[in-house]
Amino acid sequence: MRALVASGMLVLAMHSGPAAAQASNDDGAALLARSGCTACHGADGRGTALAPGITDSSLDLERFIAAVRAPRGTMPAYAPGVLSDDDIETIRDHLVAVGPQTRPAGNAQAGGERYERVGCYSCHSNQGQGVMHGPRIAPSPIRWERFTWYVRQPSGQMPPYSEVVLSESELSDIYAFLESRPQPRPVGELPLLAP
Amino acid sequence: MADSDRDDTTSTARREFLQTSAIAGAAALVGAAGTAAAQTAGSAAGQSGAGEASAAADAHVGDVQVLRSNERSGSDYMVDVLKSLDFDYFCANPASSFRGLHESLINYGGNQSPELITCCHEESSVAMAHGYYKASGKPLAVMAHGTVGLQHAAMALYNAWCDRVPVYMILGNHNDAALRRAAEWYHGVQDAALMVRDFTKWDDTPWSLTHFAESAVRAYKIALTPPMAPVVLTLDGHLQEDPISKSEQLPIPKLTLPVLPQGDSGAVEETARWLVEAESPVLVADRYARTPAGMGLLVELAEALQAPVIDQGSRMNFPSRHPLNHTWSARALVAEADMILGLEVVDFWSTVNSLRDQLHRSASRVARPDAKLVSITTGDLYVRANYQDFRRMQEVDIAIAADAEATLPSLIEAVRRLISRGRRRELEARGERLAEAHRQSAERFRQGAAVAWDASPVSTARLTAEIGNQIKDEDWALVSSYYSDAGTWPRKLWNFDKPYQWLGHAGGGGIGYGAPAAVGAALANRDMGRFSVAIQTDGDLMYAPGVLWTAAHHRIPLLSVMNNNRAYHMELMHVQRMCNARNRGIDRARIGSELVDPNIDFARMAQGLGIHAEGPITNPADLGPAIRRAMAVVKRGEPALVDVVTQVR
Q1: For residue B250, what is the DSSP state?
Q2: Residue ranges of chain B whose pLDDT lies below 50
Q3: Bridge partners of residue B197, in order along the sequence
Q4: CB-based contact A184 B453, cutoff 8 Å
Q5: Does the N-terminal or the C-terminal CB of chain B have fewer CB atoms within 10 Å?
Q6: Final residue in a domain of this structure, among B190, B211, B245
Q7: Distance CA B377, CA B263 (A)
Q8: Tens of pLDDT along A77-114?
Q9: Which pLDDT tens digit goes with each residue over A107-147?
Q10: Rg, C-alpha atoms of chain A
Q11: What whole-number distance in Å separates Cα of residue B230 and Cα of residue B195?
Q12: Which of helix, strand or coil describes residue A194?
């Protein structure tokens, strides 16, 4: 749901009234459009420059509804009078059916070289472990749609990477590199990290 | 030389000449010199037929001039005054403009209390004094040429200024242009302290020894009065070197440090009320803990309120493992807080706001709009104009212009008085929630440290854990604090529970502070029986590595473990930000920021400076044994260095 949280489009609220009246009769795709979600998240829900994709949400229904009702960031809140719980469930089912954006095949070795060459390591450190200047991004990076969206238009202090300086394919290599980092050993197996 | 061997007539004439010319200056030189020449005619050779000035000059050739038994030098008296201020050490790179004082310190003063510390760069001298103060609470004096020495020292003085740390700066200068040797023209200046006046608190150029004594004590008092800062005394060469009579009674003024300003009782009461009534209060401490008592007082206040503490780290403000330490959740806490108390917070604006550093910079408030803000800081008592270290102005609801540590006892008392029995139960419930959140954070830190545990180069978390494991049974102090992530990990993983275990930051962000400040702090810790460890960054050490020789020469025990990431990575990130913003690619961002080709061999460099050193270590499995061997050297009373090639962050 972080995808929704960070997106935020006030314009959504302008569309919400009519949508509410017809919501219960719409299928997911139409409801997505009528509710104004597509204005920011794209016609297929896979994201635009304004907001990340939401087709790969891992939120269960309850948390998905909660995020729509009380989003963080600039996304407007959808009250039950605007979108019922059933409407939101219909939208979510549609997004699940659409499925996440397909990631180009990535090469972890090339990704490791690219990771250093374009400076990801400067903040996230050499193995993606992060700490002060950038969060941990390996060995389990955030979902691909969210990952690509954030790299293109980060909301915080991270410098944006346009397609001019980092192609989709190169980004996929980096993603593969991050996924390939070894899982850390359990803390309990490392005496030096005992509390 | 025995006093009886001397020609009293000649020495007396020379002294009269110096006194006259020093007072009258260049315009009166001819007349004065003529008088002197007449007085010394009997002992000087080859003067007939020459003009008055040349006759005066010739008159000194061949003079035997040493102090008589009933005389001493002006700088001997200066040492008396400086000893009364209880300086432990003077740091200096030698310079002729303070040769008089130098000689008095080592001979008349016996090179004890203060002892002279030989430094290889004036920036190192000042940074050592900076670190020494933060470890001991006592200022050091630094001597330097008024021109070239001060120019070297200026950066470190700026750091001390920004960090509000006292440094007692003594400059040598030859004020009288008529009596300068050739080099002294390059080393002479009309107003030596002018160059650093924007970032020092007070300066003076004494014209007499009595003037010196008063200014010396006054300078100490001003430097040690919060907000503390460096001070400068410029000492004329002749004032140091000219003889004075031993029978002359010169005063040594008594030093009385002022009682510090506490917050207004009404403002303190109102602040206490807000704190007790708040549902989500946050205590933010930055340059707060001025003495060893400061940390304990903040623990008392936090526990009375069961309120979270954000330790911004300019001082050792709060124990790292205390359940109310929520430093690493600062943004979330500030966003939820309905009452925020800032204790000597240097940058309150950035505490409650955020500036986004993108192509178009933007600012947004993090704190709730209805959150009450209160500041207690001596920063409101003293601000200078030119350098902008005062930061952006933050609107607050109550601004208490006072010393925060001195104000805390009355604030704690007021808070305790205002907490009812019922309120106490509510606060205890909040404390339990915070304790659980702290426990979870600590667990996350450990899990985060395990990532890349076996990676090569060595992860900074592994570096920190290896050091922590070896020093945990010592009375240790971390004497480095640099901006790299290796400075973050110790505060997340180690148990900081003593006031001297963390010394804060450089102040002004001037690189080159770390190594000499660590040596200065280690000097203080040596005398207090503490074990000093520094996580030393590579770029910082390359500014003035000669300070390692100072540590070796003076037997200053210090374990330096390199966080050698082979670059100025903070700056690299800025270049990278520009590359991205301009869509030009990042491939060349490293140019100008990396320290490779050749890689610097810090172990060999340190060995050449007389220090036990090992490295470069790239395999994390090799790190523990190397640290163990280095610790054995340090525990024998000597410095040691382990060069570790680390991940960049």
Answers
A1: -
A2: 1-57, 59
A3: none
A4: yes
A5: N
A6: B245
A7: 9
A8: 888 888 899 999 899 888 888 887 788 889 999 999 99
A9: 999 999 999 999 899 889 889 998 777 889 999 999 898 89
A10: 19
A11: 13
A12: coil
B135 found inside a domain: yes
Q: Among candidates B352, B333, B328, which has minimal Cα distance to B342?
A: B352
> With an 8 Å Cβ cutoff, is B587 touching chain A?
yes
CB contact under 8 A, A127 and B459: yes
Torsions phi, psi for B259 (to 5 deg): -70, 135
Q: Does ipTM exceed 0.85?
A: no
Q: How far apart are the C-alpha atoms of B180 and B188, rounded to whole Å?
A: 8
Q: What is the pLDDT of residues B389-411, one digit of tens each?
A: 999 999 999 999 999 999 999 99
User: By three-state DSSP, how is residue B185 classified?
Assistant: helix
pLDDT tens for residues A37-88?
Answer: 888 888 888 887 778 888 877 778 888 888 888 887 778 888 888 889 999 9
Shared domain for A43 and A80, answered yes or no, is: yes
* Residues A66 and A118 grouped into a single domain: no
**Residue numbers of the domain that contains A144:** 108-182
Residues 468-507, chain B, touching A (beta carbon < 8 A): 468-469, 485, 488-489, 493
Predicted structure pTM score: 0.86
Of A123, A184, A193, the CB nearest to B465: A193
Domain count, chain A: 2
Strand pairing report for B339-343 and B531-537: unpaired
Nearest to B315, CA basis, from B528, B517, B501: B501
- Residue B91 and residue B104: Cα distance in Å, rounded? 15
